[in-house]
Amino acid sequence: METFLQNASSLFFNLSLSTTPKISHYQVRFSIPCNHKSRTRKAFTLSMAPTPAVEQHRVTIPNKHGEKLVGILRESGSREIVILCHGFRSSKEANVIVNLAASLENARLSSFRFDFAGNGESDGSFQYGYYWREVEDLRAVIQHFHESNRGVSAIVGHSKGGDVVLLYASKYHDIKTVVNLSGRYDLKAGIEERLGKDHFERIKKDGFIDVEISGNFEYRVTLESLMDRLDTNMHEACLQIDEECRVLTVHGSSDKVVPAEDTSKFAKIIPNHKLHIIEKANHSFTGHQDELSSVVVNFIKETLHKDRGTAN
């Protein structure tokens, strides 16, 4: 019996070190004593089903202003696509966005992450505010896939992108699964931290404020773009979200950019809403990516199952 265990162990160890096989099944045969009487041969089959190859494609989509939006389509076997939206002064390569795309891939869900106009590789100049303009960028992306006979199963946004996906759901009612990660409820808040206490007086006087970090120019805020943000009312927009639209809000309890208290306000006014707080997580969920991915992917999979069950 001891010899049998050593041989079996050696066999499995050698298999694990071998190069990728051309076939998907191995059959290993060895003897097992049965009640210490006769010795019979029993076959054991190790199944190693091939994993579908993941394909990534660079896709360029024009928005309504003729600007090219650049994104990465990660094909993972599903016809339906999850669209991932980045946050303020960020891009499709943000850790939280890339990690979610990888987790969706593991769940065999295709995804598309892209840069809003003026960000990352996309055309255009960066603009402060202009939330509704980014909603229209997202609209162009969704329409592109619909015209390609691809369904969009969910839209996911982080930070400013979280507000954008909620605003989209309030205006267009064609996506029934929305995920808001660290989105801000009151857009009048958080401005002073970036522009200074006297920002409104300065911008009214000069027409703009140039934001610098460590003495280096980062971006310009015009009076028009500031007013655009101040006039964007998340409360009124969220009241327009359909009851059939399932919304998940995920927020870190230690978020110092957008207070976690904003989540309770979303929960009160969005009719079909689920809230998940990740303890000790910051705005970007640093060190908590696994929990974030698990919550988001499971929510999307559950809603997909419900939709398919209803369709049947």
TrEMBL record:
Residues 78-188 form the Serine aminopeptidase S33 domain. GO terms for cellular component: cytosol. It comes from the Eukaryota. Pfam families: Hydrolase_4 (PF12146). This is Serine aminopeptidase S33 domain-containing protein. It comes from Phaseolus coccineus (Scarlet runner bean). The lineage of its organism: Eukaryota, Viridiplantae, Streptophyta, Embryophyta, Tracheophyta.
